[in-house]
Design goal:
Rossmann fold, 205 residues, 6-stranded mixed sheet, globular, 18% strand, alpha/beta, 6 helices
Length: 205
């Protein structure tokens, strides 16, 4: 039997070169740029070259993830419709929503973004809280082993949510948490010992 596998991908770019990036969260529903659409197609072509064609596709409710999944599936020749899941929505950054990193640092201090990127330490007024995201991932991973055993599931989400899948794996603690835009990771389930492990992470085609 094939391995039970999850492809976790981050959506493509929502800012063009020269734009000032902001903290785009759950309340900021930006579309993909032309470059972001190209990233999504590259993602799909790369997965196809690996012989990957998912049997199930899930996204957030935000169009940047929905369109990334759609274009990647076109490139893979995959006609599986995507299903939106609320738990895959980006972090709500509270007062930092759609603000620059400089704004966040001025408000919360020099180390706040470093702590977030490297340790997933979340400021108090961002949501949902890490424990809730971890519980949601645990439930989703369980559903994959119970309902889609031996199948490949593709998830397109955000950097802020994707990182919380890693603690549920044997080797995730050894990896950098961030996913680049248009990048993906692969989680596989070892049925003999009942554990997930990270096969690849932060691969950008």
């Amino acid at each position: 039997m094939s391995a039970t596998r999850i492809i976790i991908a981050r959506h493509g770019n929502t800012f063009r070169e020269g734009d000032t990036p902001t903290r785009v969260g759950a309340r900021t529903d930006l579309p993909l740029t032309e470059g972001g659409e190209e990233q999504a197609l590259k993602l799909g072509h790369h997965l196809a070259s690996m012989g990957i064609k998912p049997q199930a596709v899930f996204t957030s409710e935000l169009k940047r993830t929905i369109d990334t999944a759609r274009l990647a599936c076109v490139a893979m020749g995959c006609d599986t419709p995507s299903s939106p899941l609320k738990f895959l929505n980006e972090i709500d950054y509270g007062p930092d929503e759609n603000q620059t990193d400089e704004f966040v640092i001025k408000r919360l201090g020099d180390n706040v973004l470093k702590d977030w990127d490297e340790q997933a330490v979340m400021p108090d007024d961002w949501s949902p809280r890490p424990v809730e995201i971890l519980v949601n991932w645990k439930s989703f991973l369980k559903s994959c082993t119970e309902n889609r055993k031996g199948q490949t599931t593709m998830v397109v989400t955000s950097n802020g949510i994707a990182r919380f899948a890693l603690p549920h794996t044997q080797n995730g603690a050894n990896l950098p948490m961030k996913l680049k835009t248009g990048a993906f990771g692969i989680l596989e389930h070892d049925d003999t010992i009942g554990n997930w492990h990270v096969k690849d992470w932060n691969i950008r085609p």
